[in-house]
């Protein structure tokens, strides 16, 4: 197999506060995220997408929210730990694509910084970082500014060409 695709999703509740962290970027606003870690929905969704691409479980299995060590943790550390997993070693991240669904805060002005932060964190050129932000048209918890959501997709490419010989099993 030469490619793998993975999908990730995350949601966190909002409460009154002084800012949120999204895609590794701090955004000042009258909300904060209720979470065990820093509650970065984009990075959590991306971790799950990476894990899903290689069938290596999910973020909660690797970093349980019952573990005090992860309290308030910078989610970039989760990303670095996931990228370092042996299951991902044969694979190179080709591109990633993210949806952020947030009624508040407004994110348009922050998208360039978020893409730059993701490019650095995932060691990808900017043209391999898709990031869209949209409101939820006032619907549901996100629309009522009670939550933030993110969705992510990643594509992985095998680092070296597969060696296949007639009659031999597929190299995995
Ligand atoms: Mg999360």
Supply database-style keywords.
alpha+beta; 31% strand; 5-stranded mixed sheet; 172 residues; binds magnesium ion; 60s Ribosomal Protein L30, Chain: A; single chain; two-stranded antiparallel sheet; 5 helices
User: Using DSSP, what is the number of strands?
Assistant: 7
Total of helices:
5
Under the CATH scheme, the architecture is: 2-Layer Sandwich
Tell me the series of helices and strands, N- to C-terminal: EEEEHHHEHEHE
Distance between the termini: 7 Å
Strand content: 25-35%
Structural domain count: 1
CATH superfamily: 2-C-methyl-D-erythritol 2,4-cyclodiphosphate synthase
Bound molecules: magnesium ion
Shape: globular
CATH topology grouping: 60s Ribosomal Protein L30, Chain: A
Strand arrangement across the biggest beta sheet: 4-1-7-5-6
The helix content, as a percent range, equals: 10-25%
Q: Specify the biggest β-sheet.
A: 5 strands, mixed
**CATH C-level name:** Alpha Beta
